Protein backbone atom coordinates (compact mmCIF):
# COMPACT_ATOMS: atom_id res chain seq x y z
CA UNK A 1 0.00 0.00 0.00
CA UNK A 2 1.32 3.47 -0.93
CA UNK A 3 2.35 5.66 2.03
CA UNK A 4 0.27 8.77 2.49
CA UNK A 5 2.08 11.84 1.18
CA UNK A 6 3.12 14.29 3.87
CA UNK A 7 1.40 17.62 3.24
CA UNK A 8 3.31 20.73 4.22
CA UNK A 9 1.96 23.95 5.71
CA UNK A 10 3.66 26.94 4.05
CA UNK A 11 2.90 29.32 6.91
CA UNK A 12 4.00 27.48 10.01
CA UNK A 13 5.56 28.62 13.27
CA UNK A 14 9.25 29.04 13.99
CA UNK A 15 10.15 25.98 15.99
CA UNK A 16 13.00 23.49 15.96
CA UNK A 17 12.47 20.95 13.18
CA UNK A 18 10.53 23.37 10.99
CA UNK A 19 12.14 24.64 7.79
CA UNK A 20 12.82 28.17 6.69
CA UNK A 21 10.68 28.74 3.59
CA UNK A 22 11.00 32.45 2.88
CA UNK A 23 12.50 35.74 3.93
CA UNK A 24 10.66 39.03 4.05
CA UNK A 25 12.08 41.66 1.73
CA UNK A 26 12.28 45.42 2.20
CA UNK A 27 9.18 45.85 0.04
CA UNK A 28 7.19 43.63 2.42
CA UNK A 29 6.90 40.64 0.10
CA UNK A 30 8.39 37.27 0.95
CA UNK A 31 11.16 35.75 -1.16
CA UNK A 32 10.47 32.01 -1.27
CA UNK A 33 13.60 29.86 -1.07
CA UNK A 34 14.07 27.29 -3.86
CA UNK A 35 14.82 24.76 -1.14
CA UNK A 36 13.69 25.13 2.48
CA UNK A 37 16.33 24.98 5.20
CA UNK A 38 15.85 23.11 8.45
CA UNK A 39 16.06 25.33 11.51
CA UNK A 40 17.18 24.51 15.02
CA UNK A 41 16.73 25.82 18.54
CA UNK A 42 19.53 28.37 18.14
CA UNK A 43 17.95 29.83 15.01
CA UNK A 44 14.56 30.12 16.68
CA UNK A 45 16.05 31.80 19.74
CA UNK A 46 18.08 34.28 17.70
CA UNK A 47 15.26 35.02 15.28
CA UNK A 48 12.78 35.65 18.10
CA UNK A 49 15.17 37.84 20.12
CA UNK A 50 13.97 41.13 18.65
CA UNK A 51 10.47 40.34 17.40
CA UNK A 52 8.44 37.26 16.48
CA UNK A 53 10.35 35.44 13.76
CA UNK A 54 7.12 35.00 11.80
CA UNK A 55 7.13 38.74 11.10
CA UNK A 56 10.34 38.44 9.07
CA UNK A 57 10.42 34.85 7.89
CA UNK A 58 8.08 32.13 6.65
CA UNK A 59 8.43 28.57 7.85
CA UNK A 60 7.10 25.27 6.65
CA UNK A 61 6.24 22.19 8.64
CA UNK A 62 3.85 19.27 8.42
CA UNK A 63 0.21 20.32 8.03
CA UNK A 64 -1.53 19.12 11.18
CA UNK A 65 -5.05 19.64 9.80
CA UNK A 66 -7.49 19.54 12.74
CA UNK A 67 -4.58 20.26 15.09
CA UNK A 68 -4.46 23.81 13.67
CA UNK A 69 -7.06 26.45 14.40
CA UNK A 70 -6.91 27.56 10.76
CA UNK A 71 -8.31 24.19 9.61
CA UNK A 72 -11.94 24.51 8.54
CA UNK A 73 -12.68 20.82 8.84
CA UNK A 74 -11.86 20.03 5.24
CA UNK A 75 -9.22 22.56 4.15
CA UNK A 76 -6.85 25.36 5.14
CA UNK A 77 -8.70 28.58 5.89
CA UNK A 78 -5.63 30.76 5.47
CA UNK A 79 -5.20 29.93 1.80
CA UNK A 80 -8.85 30.70 1.08
CA UNK A 81 -8.64 33.94 3.06
CA UNK A 82 -5.59 35.10 1.14
CA UNK A 83 -7.10 34.23 -2.21
CA UNK A 84 -10.26 36.17 -1.37
CA UNK A 85 -8.18 39.37 -1.67
CA UNK A 86 -6.11 38.27 -4.65
CA UNK A 87 -7.64 40.97 -6.86
CA UNK A 88 -6.13 43.58 -4.53
CA UNK A 89 -2.61 42.19 -4.89
CA UNK A 90 -0.08 43.02 -7.60
CA UNK A 91 -0.19 40.61 -10.53
CA UNK A 92 2.53 37.97 -10.32
CA UNK A 93 3.10 36.17 -13.61
CA UNK A 94 5.88 33.71 -12.80
CA UNK A 95 5.46 31.27 -9.96
CA UNK A 96 8.33 31.32 -7.48
CA UNK A 97 10.70 28.38 -7.59
CA UNK A 98 9.60 26.46 -4.51
CA UNK A 99 10.92 23.21 -3.11
CA UNK A 100 7.73 22.18 -1.32
CA UNK A 101 5.24 22.64 -4.20
CA UNK A 102 4.46 18.91 -4.64
CA UNK A 103 3.55 18.70 -0.95
CA UNK A 104 2.22 22.21 -0.30
CA UNK A 105 -1.22 22.39 1.29
CA UNK A 106 -2.08 25.67 -0.40
CA UNK A 107 -0.94 24.53 -3.86
CA UNK A 108 -2.72 21.21 -3.48
CA UNK A 109 -5.88 22.96 -2.39
CA UNK A 110 -5.95 25.99 -4.69
CA UNK A 111 -3.42 25.31 -7.46
CA UNK A 112 -1.01 27.84 -9.03
CA UNK A 113 -3.09 30.82 -7.96
CA UNK A 114 -1.98 30.11 -4.38
CA UNK A 115 1.64 30.62 -5.45
CA UNK A 116 0.76 34.01 -6.94
CA UNK A 117 -0.50 35.18 -3.55
CA UNK A 118 2.08 33.37 -1.45
CA UNK A 119 4.73 36.10 -1.45
CA UNK A 120 2.26 38.49 0.17
CA UNK A 121 1.54 36.36 3.23
CA UNK A 122 3.18 37.22 6.55
CA UNK A 123 2.41 34.43 9.01
CA UNK A 124 2.45 36.61 12.11
CA UNK A 125 -0.11 38.97 10.59
CA UNK A 126 -2.53 36.28 9.51
CA UNK A 127 -2.35 34.60 12.92
CA UNK A 128 -2.92 37.89 14.74
CA UNK A 129 -5.94 38.63 12.54
CA UNK A 130 -7.27 35.15 13.13
CA UNK A 131 -6.83 35.47 16.91
CA UNK A 132 -8.65 38.80 16.87
CA UNK A 133 -11.56 37.37 14.89
CA UNK A 134 -11.88 34.37 17.16
CA UNK A 135 -11.82 36.41 20.31
CA UNK A 136 -14.70 38.44 18.97
CA UNK A 137 -12.67 41.65 19.39
S1 LIG B 1 1.77 28.38 -2.24
FE1 LIG B 1 3.18 27.90 -3.94
S2 LIG B 1 5.00 29.19 -3.63
FE2 LIG B 1 3.83 29.17 -1.69
S3 LIG B 1 4.75 27.54 -0.49
FE3 LIG B 1 3.03 26.63 -1.60
S4 LIG B 1 3.89 25.81 -3.51
FE4 LIG B 1 5.40 27.22 -2.60
Question: Would you give an account of this structure?
Answer:
The protein has 137 residues and is α+β, with helices and mostly antiparallel strands. It has one domain. Helix content is 28%, strand content 19%. It is built from five helices and four strands. It has helices at residues 41-47, 77-83, 105-110, 112-118, 123-134; strands at 8-12, 19-24, 30-38, 57-62. A four-stranded antiparallel sheet has the order 1-4-2-3, with no helix packed on it. A hairpin with a 5-residue loop joins β2 (19-24) and β3. It is globular and about 35 Å long. The chain starts with 7 loop residues before the first strand and ends with a helix. Mean pLDDT is 89; it is low at 133-137. It binds iron/sulfur cluster (SF4). Residues 10, 32, 96, 98, 100-101, 104, 106-107, 114-115, 118 line the site of iron/sulfur cluster. Iron/sulfur cluster binds next to α3 and α4.
Amino acid sequence: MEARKKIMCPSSKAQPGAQLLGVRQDDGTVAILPQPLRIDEAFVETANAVAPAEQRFRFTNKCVESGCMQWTGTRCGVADKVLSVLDQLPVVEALPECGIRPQCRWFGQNGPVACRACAFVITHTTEAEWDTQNQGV
